[in-house]
Amino acid sequence: MSETTSQGASSTSSVYQAYQANTYLFGGNAPYVEEMYENYLANPGGVPDSWRDYFDALQHVPAADGSNAKDVPHLPVINAFAERAKQGGTKVVVANVDAEMGRKRTAAQQLIAAYRNVGVSWADLDPLKRAERVVIPELEPSFYGFSDADQEAVFDTSNTFFGKNSMSLRELMNALRQTYCGTIGAQFMHTTDQNHKRWWQQKLESIRSKPSFSVEQQKHILDRLTAAEGLERFLHTKYVGQKRFSLEGGESFIACMDELIQSAGVKGIQEIVIGMAHRGRLNVLVNSLGKMPGDLFAEFDHTAPEELTSGDVKYHQGFSSDVTTRGGPVHLSLAFNPSHLEIVNPVVEGSVRARMDRRADPLGKQVLPVLVHGDAAFSGQGVNMETFALAETRGYSTGGTVHIIINNQIGFTTSDPRDSRSTLYCTDVIKMIEAPVVHVNGDDPEAVVLATQLALEFRLEFRKDVVVDIVCFRKLGHNEQDTPALTQPLMYKKIAAHPGTRSLYADKLAAQGLGATLGDDMVKAFRAAMDAGKHTVDPVLTNFKSKYAVDWAPFIGQKWTDAAETAIPLGEWKRLAEKITTIPASVTPHNLVRKVYEDRAAMGRGDLPVDWGMGEHMAFASLVASGYPVRLSGEDCGRGTFTHRHSVIHDQNREKWDVGTYIPLQNVTDNQAPFVVIDSILSEEAVLAFEYGYASNEPNTLVIWEAQFGDFANGAQVVIDQFIASGEVKWGRVNGITLMLPHGYEGQGPEHSSARLERFMQLSADTNMQVVQPTTASQIFHILRRQMVRNIRKPLIILTPKSLLRAKDAASPVSEFTKGSFQTIIPEQKALKADKVKRLVACSGKVYYDLVKKREEIAADDVAIIRVEQLYPFPHKAFAAELKRYPNVTEVVWCQDEPQNQGAWFFVQHYIYENMFDGQKRGYSGRAASASPAVGYAHLHQEQQKALVEGAFAKLKGTVLTK
């Protein structure tokens, strides 16, 4: 561009004509122009001279120049410059555009942008080189009108980080291809944050994506490849045919893990929590975490000690260790993981968040989550997308996760890659949170290490997720008994001919003059270590213990007991009640909420019976005052789905959360433990898994997940089945997570009635968890406190009510909170004559109040009604004691709201029978068996409810079991 100088706006007409003549700047190129314009506004000196001159010239283009706004491209740009001109500036530079030269300069910038955006598509990423590198037009100079004659033309490259402000087209092309089309292919231009884009551009372009390692570093990389390959070959030879989910073909992953651990230690990370599925897991245990090879071999030989009730296969096992790094000790934890692959990811995130909270490390400067994925699982399993959605929310952020993909290019078995996903890359799903992705050829271990370094640096600087996608292959099948050549013959011919990453890298170092026998010497040394069963990670610290480590000893091996001192003194009750019902004058609550808190204040004084919400609040208040943190999460849990909780008061005169809310439970005492309440994203699976992971690292925190409706726990069934119900017997992991699941038949249809009580009952064994259905405010108070004050940590499943939340009959006097404890069975409350009672009706939940009302209507004083509040572990002694109270009982009837094949009946009937006396009959009154949890028609619901309540008092029908 040639430059002329002008005063004022006398030449705006000519500038506008030039503007219109350069329409090639717009249309399909609009995003690039807009990005350059944004850079100009931020820093005019930071864009090429040609662009700066051009934007300077546009300052005096009139907003519409007599045309309609729709006829002017980039009208906001023109108007922005016009506004700037009004605010000051006397002398302006006007460009007299040389159209052809201007076009080429712009084309050079478009070429740079193209490589930054789609250069990855031409990168050398496949170790098997199965597909030819097809021509991508956008990466060819000819696409932008350049010819061979332009190769030596010089263009402005001051907006790049190649170290030169100007380069010939030939130099520029070489630099771009080296940076973006080598064995590293980066995707970062999808982010909307300019700082992120510039960071990646500077990091990659300044070194042209080429690592520069010392001889010692190269030898260390070879050592890690040797260890990775050596372990697999040792196991393949010694344990023929046994499943181990071999890492062969992806050995660079171990070099990646080694670099990640070592660099993290240097940068201040003190704990790394790792989640991964099967492939390469045994290799990580031995070669990254330092598990003794001899211990692994014992598991293969089936000689490992069987200390657990059931145990699990070796490639599901977790492990922890402390290793030395150049920056000091780092604690490593590999999470236990079932076969549901990616479900471990939110569990790891929860574990990391607990460690961050314990360290008062809100940014994750000391704790790092690392998640290792397979390519098909990363894109295929929805829990990943749920977990990504949690990544930057306040209650679940962990300061960014480093994701590593062992990309076998084939999916989990031998599927056609065209059927594996609907996206070009398996990593495309993480673009939903604008995370950068570094794809890297697994046959270039130095590039893998460099990609790992960059990923860690990015995470630590920006506190965001980042992905390292190691494109490799799988030498053997999905497991070692598989023959993938049956369905992938050509791919596996290439794999069979591949010499192995270690061999290729050893040859490379030998060619550099590092010794022809270096690789063979390392192989022999590793084999000797394997034969001796020695550590392959040096050194592993055996006596190191962090001050942040949790002591689980008080909770291990504890025998079950229902007993616990959960009542609080009256004076403490009144003090806490006053604290949590006092709203500061500076906060203006909604009138309905004000009334709730006024009533709660009266309950605290004893002027009103205590309702469910107040009983729950008092449990939380007494716990945090005693030093037990409380973490409550779920959809709507701040308010409560049925608006009973109101733990968060929203100021009606202020909108922002940071200044517009008041949480009374955070203001109980000066030195109280934290009370955290989180309205979660609309997710069950990932959120519950996160909370399980949190509870697995915080035994002294009451961790609660509340479902919006109990039915919605369906969406988290994997977590319930594979972690909550079985984690202790499989892995020895005790966990005190609490689930609150609203449950009750009030005619709201099949999706809003049942928390699927029967599923929890079916999963109950080995005293693995507690299943309770409290029916009074004092019961919820005592069960929540019991969960913490006992030295027992078992998952607690609470079927919470809906209609009972405000029912007067479910309210309790203050005396029930200052005395007593949780009652596993609530006896008959009416003063019946024991010797006149002929029938005992046992029930659980809301139906109790319907039964009492019916008994009063028909004056059936020969029927006693008891409530089983704890369904598992079943309170045999308490139940037997109730039977003994009534010596003339001949019939024992179980009554429930749920259909016969659901609810508790199929499980408690055996417990009831076990405690009955000779000659007693056992009966059932409830809904008939049903494929659906509840009916959807109100009149039908009412008819069924009426019939089951009447049936509890009617003559027993059908087959009656007699003891």
Automatic annotation (TrEMBL):
GO cellular component entries: cytosol; oxoglutarate dehydrogenase complex
Enzyme class name: oxidoreductase
SUPFAM superfamilies in the record: Thiamin diphosphate-binding fold (THDP-binding) (SSF52518)
Molecular functions per Gene Ontology: oxoglutarate dehydrogenase (succinyl-transferring) activity; thiamine pyrophosphate binding
Domain of life: Bacteria
A Pfam family matched in the record: OxoGdeHyase_C
Residue intervals of the Transketolase-like pyrimidine-binding domain: 610-807
Record-linked SMART domains: Transket_pyr (SM00861)
Necessary cofactors: thiamine diphosphate
EC number: 1.2.4.2
Gene Ontology biological process: tricarboxylic acid cycle
Keywords for this protein: Oxidoreductase, Thiamine pyrophosphate
Family stated for the protein in its record: Belongs to the alpha-ketoglutarate dehydrogenase family.
Function: E1 component of the 2-oxoglutarate dehydrogenase (OGDH) complex which catalyzes the decarboxylation of 2-oxoglutarate, the first step in the conversion of 2-oxoglutarate to succinyl-CoA and CO(2).
Name listed for the protein in its UniProt record: oxoglutarate dehydrogenase (succinyl-transferring)
